Every structure is written in C-alpha cells, then in structure tokens.
Amino acid sequence: MSRLTILEFPDPRLRRVARPVDAVSDRERKLAADMLETMYDARGIGLAATQVNEGVRLLVLDLSETRDDPKVFINPEITERVGSQTCEEGCLSVPGVYAEVDRAERIRVRSLGLDGEPFELDADGLLAVCIQHEIDHLDGKVFVDYLSPLKRRMVEKRLKKQKQRDNEPVA
Ligand code: ZN
Q1: I need a labelling partner for 152 at 20 to 30 A (CA). Which of 10, 12, 58, 68 fits?
Q2: What CATH number does residue 71 fall under?
Q3: How far apart are CA 3 and CA 27, in angstroms?
C-alpha cells in the first residue's frame, strides 16, 4: 500500500467530475486500499478518489472510533433524501477550516462494493453527512461551495496565508 497526495482547495483538479467504474478490478481494490491508508494517516473520516487526483467514482470512509471499520463505495448514488440536518464539516482538502452545512438527514444509497456486488444502505446522522460530502467531491463540489461568497473568500485568504507560512524557510 502507499500513501497518496491529497489535493487542496482551491486546486482546479478538485472540480473535475469523476467517471463511473465499468467493472471493479484489482485496480480499484488497490486504489481503495491506498485511499484508506491515506485517510487513516491524515486522521480523516472520509476520502473521495477526486481528492487524490483519481477521476473515478470511488470513496472510502470509516466513522468508527477504533478506526477498524472501513467502508468502500463504488459508483454510489443517492436514491432517496429525507429531512434536513445542519452539521459542522471539515475536509482533508480544506485543512483547518470548519463550517456548518445543511444536508439531508436520512438518505438511501445504492452502490457497488469492492467485490463488484451491488448493495443498498440507509444512512442517517454523521454517516449520511459524510456520504453526501464525499459524493459531492465526485461531482467536483467542495463543502465551502455552500458558504456565502464572503465567507468563501475569507476561507481562500486564510488558506493562502497558511500555505505561505508553510513554505517559509525554517531557520
Ligand atoms: Zn472533503
């Protein structure tokens, strides 16, 4: 397994719409394993292929406290949305930024698993939020898109400053 580089907002590659996987093969299984390693290493709870510059509809997540319950979704589709909830979200591609976003409270998801078999899942709470957040990535969307233009500009400025600081030589 190998750790992958996570793209950071406002990288234009985060805007690409991912294509469906035709058939689940070893290529997808290797990508999912690498993405899980990358996600665990970054202490994230979810990661979409778009974030590691892979243009396929694949996402991984693990909401367990023990970090031993990985879930992989290939070609996930939300077939039902019920209610609404507001949750503070963060994103491995937007480091250090947290903001409240409105999402559906409950969703039904249809997806393929790593074995290529279809499955359906009913999700609510944080799991529903996480799946909606990651599917957004596959559609080229980032959670800061839901913020007001003013707030989004503040986020962009803050990230730019952060980056400049990171690049300053330490002596
Ligand atoms: Zn994200």
Answers
A1: 58
A2: 3.90.45.10
A3: 15
Task: Kindly give the distance from the C-alpha atom of residue 119 to the centroid of ligand 1, in angstroms, as a whole number.
Answer: 23
In a domain, 2, yes or no: no
What are the residue numbers of the active site? Answer: 134
Range of the domain at 135: 12-166
pTM over 0.90: yes
**What confidence tens digit (pLDDT) does each residue in 80-94 have?**
999 999 999 999 999
CA of 50 from ligand 1 middle (Å) equals: 10
Q: 116-169, pLDDT tens digit by residue?
A: 999 999 999 999 999 999 999 999 999 999 999 999 998 889 888 888 888 887
Full DSSP string of 78-146 = EEEEES-EEEEE--TTSTT--EEEEE-SEEEEEEE-TTS-EEEEEEEHHHHHHHHHHHHHHTT--GGGG
Distance 55 CA to ligand 1 centre (A): 15
51, pLDDT greater than 90: yes
Please state the domain count of the chain.
Answer: 1
